[in-house]
Design brief:
Strand order of the largest sheet: 1-2-3-4
Low-confidence stretches: none
Largest sheet: 4 strands, antiparallel
Shape: elongated
Helix content: 25-40%
Strand content: 25-35%
Number of helices: 3
Radius of gyration: 21 Å
């Protein structure tokens, strides 16, 4: 599959009077964020405690129930420490962004999300040390007495300025 084939998914969603302003994808591979500075130590503590529980349950009680009780906690610890990074790497390989003059299209795996330009929340731009940037769309509010929130992003893109300019040129 060529790079152009990765963006063919958007053709059915583009109308006659619509054209592509920008296309891109997130940086591939492992990307550590500031959030990981807190999550990695927490993950280590979680996994260490759950492994301690399992070893203790096996050695002292010999109770099958206690051994089985601790297994989900070990699984969560393994996911927090390793699995979430593998999942992110896998999803980044399958994520593509299209900005047209009328909408923003995000494909992640087989899921396609479409945001009309008139419905986009305000954008915030974060520049990262590696030269990439993230455009965050975030909005909270109240409707019919209920609180709602909208959050999505164009994550770790190399051409963050080009994407931001394309979003600014969208027709509202």
């Amino acid at each position: 599959m060529t790079t152009l084939d990765n963006y063919d998914f958007c053709k059915p969603y583009i109308m006659d009077n619509e054209y592509i302003l920008w296309e891109g994808a997130p940086q591939k591979g492992l990307v550590l964020t500031s959030r990981d500075l807190a999550l990695i130590p927490f993950s280590l503590i979680w996994l260490a405690f759950s492994l301690f529980w399992e070893v203790s349950a096996i050695r002292t009680t010999g109770s099958l129930f206690m051994v089985l009780w601790g297994l989900p906690f070990v699984g969560v610890g393994i996911y927090l420490l390793f699995g979430r990074f593998l999942q992110t790497i896998f999803l980044r390989k399958k994520t593509y962004y299209i900005i047209t003059n009328k909408k923003l299209i995000i494909r992640t795996g087989s899921k396609v999300k479409i945001y009309r330009s008139a419905d986009l929340p305000p954008m915030n731009i974060q520049h990262h040390r590696d030269g990439t940037g993230t455009i965050l769309f975030w909005e909270t509010g109240y409707s019919h007495g209920r609180r709602y929130g909208t959050f999505f992003s164009l994550d770790h893109i190399a051409d963050v300025v080009g994407a931001q300019n394309a979003i600014s040129r969208m027709e509202h």
